[in-house]
Give the backbone structure.
Amino acid sequence: MMKTTAFITAGTLALGWSSTLIAADGYITLASTTSTENSGLFGAIIPAFTEESGIEVRVVAVGTGQAFEIARRGDADSLLVHDTVGEEQFVADGYATQRLDVMYNDFVIVGPSDDPADISESETVSDAMQRIAESESPFASRGDDSGTHRAELRLWEDAGVTPQGGWYRELGSGMGPTLNTAAGMNAYSFTDRATWVAFENPQDLKLLFEGDEALFNQYGSLLLSEEQHPHLKHALAAQWHEWLVSEQGQQAIADFEVAGEQLFFPNAE
Amino acid sequence: MPINDNAFSTALSLILSMDSALISIVMLSLQVSLMAVLIASLLALPLGAALALWHFPGRNAVIVALNALMGLPPVVAGLCVYLLLSRAGPLGEWGLLFSPTAMVIAQVILVLPIIAALTRQQIEALHSEYAEQLNSLGLSRQRMIPTLLWDARFALLTVILAGFGRASAEVGAVMIVGGNIDGVTRVMTTSIVLETSKGNLPMALGLGIILLALVTMINAIAHMIGETAKRRLG
């Protein structure tokens, strides 16, 4: 008896969602980074695009490394990430046919408010990172092959530091979890500004270093190859790709603010 | 959504506001997990019973494998389903990745071993108790299965609830195969992960409290139905 009741309930519930699945026809799946989703950017700009085009955009927000992998396997119609070197490689490998600059923001270094490594006095990011390494202050790294992690590793290299030892902690998690952990152990961390500004659990962490040109963080949109994956919704994805760099798209990005602060700066050519 | 520092008041104000986004997330969580438990039960109950009654070479290996799979990490199940359903995978043609259906498939894989292994144990105990009677009735083993399952129904209700607990609590599998897409595949557990990653801990814990309350409610309903049926049917 009770099993029958439970089964009927489950069956009824299951029918509920099949109808919503059928309704969603004109949609694309966008693989993108956690910084764009977690900061609320997509929530702000996608409705404008959907209203204009009638196309729904479903965002799968993961690290840049995983986003590339999803697109490589043909599981996303469109790709918006922030690793210019990786993106150009992706085009060269034939997985995408076009890469366009969409917007930028910057990376910042956050850390304990008493700043034991004195990085707030640094002139350059290389100097700031050397100070962290020399003082062996705890540093929480993404360690997840994301765009931010790749940028961090390039900066260590530029600073001539091999990050290793007890002070350098590779977490293997997304930006938010990394900031949570950094806050918990009062460590320095390298983050994109958007995630930092929208982050609500900073505890004793403060923004300590910003403004070096090397901290530039470019986001690019990729038009995926029709040849590699003919089943993808290329026509719809192309509309999204073009809208991002159009006047309306760029304006929508510029208009997005968190706590009165603009987080992404459109720079399509 | 309202935000403040206390998880309990966050949970309460979320419930009271009847936020439509929250309701759809709750509904999807229930749909996915109940559907997964339904499918897994339909397969695992007869499977577990059959395993209790039939003796064949390698039976012990199957039992050990089922028991071990009860501890299958959700993220591994998710990864397997991801590779299976990915466009580059063998079932890519179906285009099921990042859909609720994919989430159900992953959860079936997680729940099935639990229900099958525990059913096997229950039915085996029951069978050794009633073996003589059943044999004197001249029932074939195939015919014994429904009889034994029906007789063990109250114990099996708990088994099914254990499966439901696994499904409603896991996040690793649905995150990978669902993608946590807002309004499409976002469920309670993936929302909790998302809010945690935003540093919005009161909201994350508030959602956790709501999830716990829901699971408690479903368990209470199942318990009540079980008790009532027990009293009526003796």
Remarks:
- Chain B touches chain A at residues 3, 27-28, 30-31, 34-35, 37-38, 41, 86-89, 92, 95, 97-100, 153, 157, 160, 179-182, 184, 194, 196-201, 222, 225-226, 229 (CB under 8 Å).
- Chain B has a mean pLDDT of 92.
- Chain B has one domain: 19-233.
